[in-house]
Amino acid sequence: MNDGVLADMMAELDAELARAEASLPEHPEQTRQTEVMRALALGLGNFERMRAHDVHLLAARLSPRRG
Fold first, then answer.
1. Pick from 67, 66, 48: nearest CA to 56
2. What is the pLDDT of residue 16?
3. What integer best gives the mean pLDDT of the chain?
4. Can you spell out the DSSP letters for 5-33?
5. From which domain of life does this come (predicted)?
6. Which is nearest to 19 in space by CA: 9, 4, 7, 34?
7. Rounded CA gap, 41 and 9, in Å?
8. 34 vs 16: CA distance, rounded Å
9. Model confidence over 15-43: pLDDT tens digits?
10. Positive or negative, the Cα torsion across 53, 13, 32, 22?
11. Which helix (H) or strand (E) holds 48?
12. With pLDDT > 70 as the criterion, what percentage of the chain qualifies?
């Protein structure tokens, strides 16, 4: 997943969570669920970035050296 796609996905999820949070102040359990969803989304984003970085490092290591 490239950074642009990931950024779009995170922006959509963030907007959806923001819409949901507006109606939750009197429902602590749902507010907690929203917080957990946000944490999971952030974790997914971080995982995708780490994976992309690892792939980049592996490709650099496997490519023939020039010079």
1. 48
2. 79
3. 77
4. HHHHHHHHHHHHHHHHHTT-TT-HHHHHH
5. Bacteria
6. 34
7. 9
8. 10
9. 877 777 676 666 677 777 777 877 887 78
10. positive
11. helix 28-62
12. 85
